[in-house]
Design brief:
The chain is an alpha/beta fold. Helices cover about 30% and strands about 25% of the residues. It is globular, with a radius of gyration of 16 Å.
Length: about 190
């Protein structure tokens, strides 16, 4: 595991046995983190390469999280953990097998392995290294497009780890019926 310090966030390279790849993880700390002994909620975000740096963002424009916090100091202070996607993004974020529109191949959904990495490897690493509230009540997950689909899946299957969900511009279309069936069988009462 390597550590690189970059701008206002740290970058870790974690070897994931669950995903069989190295995963680049960015951690953005609240402004008060270094001057208090407070504990903080944590938000895990998919497609971490798109969060902080235009040079790394898939389409050349990041979500501007650091700028947003600078411009609005009243935002809640949380630790943000960005999980970079790799070449297997679709398989990791889409929870079911489906025919891929781009190359007409069958994409295998390995979201359970992705969430095993987050819940069994990454979250314990973050909780040990930083002052976090460890409970599901103080842990969220967020993403857009396939990341929104993945966050919906987490709400349905992983509510013992997360109870805060942000699902933006959800790309349900490749597995619409399957996600609807899962919703019908699930209870969102713990969210």
């Amino acid at each position: 595991m390597g550590v690189l310090l970059m701008k206002e966030y740290k970058v870790f390279i974690i070897n994931s046995k669950e995903l069989n790849r190295e995963v680049r993880v960015s951690v953005f700390l609240p402004k008060s983190y270094r001057i208090t002994d407070e504990f903080y909620p944590v938000l895990y975000m998919h497609d971490g390469q798109n969060l902080f740096d235009n040079n790394l963002a898939t389409f050349g424009k990041s979500w501007g999280i650091m700028e947003t916090y600078k411009n609005d100091p009243d935002l809640p202070e949380i630790i943000i953990v960005g999980i970079d996607s790799g070449e297997t993004r679709t398989e990791e974020l889409v929870p079911f097998n489906f025919k891929n529109d781009h190359d007409k191949n069958l994409s295998e959904g390995v979201s359970d392995k992705y969430y095993e990495f987050i819940t069994q490897s990454l979250k314990p690493f973050i909780d040990k290294r930083y002052r976090t509230f460890k409970s599901a009540k103080n842990t969220g997950i967020m993403g857009s497009s396939y990341g929104g689909l993945s966050s919906t899946y987490a709400a349905l299957k992983y509510s013992e780890y997360f109870t805060r969900f942000a699902c933006v511009s959800n790309a349900y279309y490749p597995v619409q019926k399957k996600i609807e069936n899962l919703i019908k069988k699930s209870s969102l009462s713990s969210c």
